[in-house]
Amino acid sequence: MLKGLEIDFEVRVNEVNEIIPKDLAPEYVAAYLSKLKSDAYVDTLSANELVITSDTAVLRDGYILGKPTSEDQAYDMIKSLSSATHTVITAVTIRDLARSVTLEDQTEVTFRFLEDNEIWHYIKKYQPFDKAGAYGIQEWIGFMGVEKINGSYYTVMGFPLHLIYQQLKKW
Predict the structure, then answer these.
(1) One of 55, 72, 105, 130 is an active-site residue; which one?
(2) Which CA distances in Å does 42 have to 15, 37, 51, 56, 99?
(3) pLDDT tens-digit profile of 83-124?
(4) Taking the domains of the chain in order of start, what are their residue ranges?
(5) Domain 25-170: which topology?
(6) Known catalytic membership, residue 105
(7) What is the pTM of this model?
């Protein structure tokens, strides 16, 4: 996606233990984790570098739908999204040696009624275990199941490009 903005970049991977404080409100989880991921790079940055990290939270009725750990859990998550609207919050942290800023965006996503066989087809074929809420809007279930979105498609994908671009222009 950064290529689409014509930005030179390289991908670096750094393992972060994503432990969320128990008293943290669900709407702040994405920002907290984005900052946590960014903090892991502080000691590795040089003077001419910056790092961009992000995290996404899917909220349904005030609860976070994290990444499923089983097919049954993925089914339950997706079933709860069927015929319903949920909120996707993505936070992005941009940091260099001198400063850090965390930006956040929210998008509402409405799924049409999803039949059980459609949910199971998606789970079996796409294995959505690395996705918040057990789905990727850019995959089959998004193509056929998303009825409406109110906000940025890229926020739902987990990388709100419009916010990133605006912030990079300021820097």
Answers:
(1) 55
(2) 14, 10, 9, 21, 11
(3) 999 999 999 999 999 899 999 999 999 999 999 999 999 999
(4) 25-170
(5) Maf protein (3.90.950)
(6) no
(7) 0.93
